[in-house]
Amino acid sequence: MQETYRALRGTRDILPAEAERWQFVEHTARTLFARYGFREIRTPILESTGLFARSVGAATDIVRKEMYAFSVGTESIALRPEATASVARAVVEHALFREIAVGYPERYYYIGPMFRHERPQKGRQRQFHQIGGEVLGAAEPVVDAETIQMVEALLDALGVERRELLLNSVGDGACRPRFRDELRSWLAAHLDRLCADCRRRYEENPLRVFDCKEPADRELLQRAPRLTELLCTACDEHFTQVRRGLEALGVRHRVEPHLVRGLDYYQRTVFEVVAEGLGAQNALLGGGRYDGLVQELGGPELPGFGFSIGLERLVLLLDPRRVPSGGVDAALIAVGAEAWLAAQALAGRLRGAGVSCVAPTVERPLAAQLRRADRLRARHAVFVGETELAERSFTVKDLRTGAQERVEESALASRLRRGGSDEH
Ligand code: HAM
Which CATH number is 16-175+231-321 given? Predict the structure, then answer.
């Protein structure tokens, strides 16, 4: 028997009906982001493995356990597990920081696949997609608030309800070491009750204990020291200003003192939006400030702030009523023998005039053509028969209302386009 193939575990095909929802989400995001001055950047999916160890952090789960990394020749290559590092790399490589002026950071967005070798479950894939944005060149807390507000505006536009914005500060090089010491002493006193992974984290990078998924550990860690209580003056002030900015912009949030995120490059603000309806993987998006990253990658001192939204998760929560119905403007119905060829020719002319339409490629019974018009979610049926062709005037049936009218060929394209344009 011949071997058949299936998509790899943790990867999936986005079939046309679902792709329409993806396109709607992407289109809404692109339009909204452009209003905030974000421009698209497309970076490669393949990067040097070292880039992610350097930025995301060698001790993180993403780099230690989940990265698709391999060697080709003498190069060590990874499928990107995220794109913030890639954007920062591109900014350094192309000296894009030269475009930045005080008070005018550069804003980039990206949409594309990311790869993490995780255990697949609802909302968790090995190849997944993100819509992300990165703002480079401004340390001011108003940037954090403005960018978070944009993300919230996107979720509103897509009708994502029952969600919550969680906010925290992870401090900076001045206060985090002090917190790490406090946390380490606290963990030392509770080591015997923590899982093996947390005991390793205690040795390597104690903040990572907050990534732990073990319910017993999580319960215990509720009582661990809180970073927000140990912030240095500058970080504390930044955090206060971000919260004030969010309030001014009407963005509701909750401070979650143990939110640390699974990546090492963050400084000060971190945030996530969690939503009902996603199951155990309830984080719809996450992000934060990464002021040291560009310098870490060999660039100048350039503050950064950004976010990434899980596209699969976003599509799951999308209000389906907001998605414009797909389908074509018209199905051409060939009436009588040989009319299908004339219908094909008419279809060609209509397409040239901006109408989406389909005509049969062989002679077919009328009933079959009408059934197909339904399947194609055509908004109109256009009947193409000998008389119509001779008179250059066609019967157009509105398939939603059932109303029929005769339309001159010269007016046909605008009539059909207009019929669909109220939905796009
Ligand atoms: P992250 O929290 O690792 O952050 O990922 C952001 C979002 O991507 C998650 O909230 C989730 O929706 C989605 N996601 C992550 N892993 C998976 C998966 N295996 N399957 C499906 N969806 C997934 C980042 O990636 C940072 N680059 C965010 C950022 C941008 N920080 C600053 N700028």
Answer: 3.30.930.10
